[in-house]
Amino acid sequence: MNLKRRDREQKIAVSCLLKRGNEVLLLRSSQALNEANYTHPGYFNLPRFYLNFGEDPEELLRREFLDLFNQQIDELELLDVTQSRPDEYTHLVNIIYGGQTDTDTAAVGKYMFTKIDELENYAFPGELERIKRFLGF
User: What is this structure's pTM?
Assistant: First the structure.
């Protein structure tokens, strides 16, 4: 029996709470994983991207939001940095930014802008609390 030990890894994820007026951009759960790494159809989450070695987190967000969501981010503000250990081999660092946009595009199914007062209908419960904290609720 050949038991290969799994290597430990550190991942750096970058998320963004992108506001457009009184709305927030959320990504459908089939594209976004919750903290337990399971998808939940019908739920949405903040978009999250993983950094490659040496990559600038703000450049990554600006590029991905433009490519995937057709959203130009006006200014980015660092909101929080968190860390977790989803399993004994993984250390996850999450850098969370806030941003504003005035780009008026419609949702395309995998993401949507939702009104802030309707977030509880779409966001994961844990993510909802974080979003409310970032928004000052």
Answer: 0.81
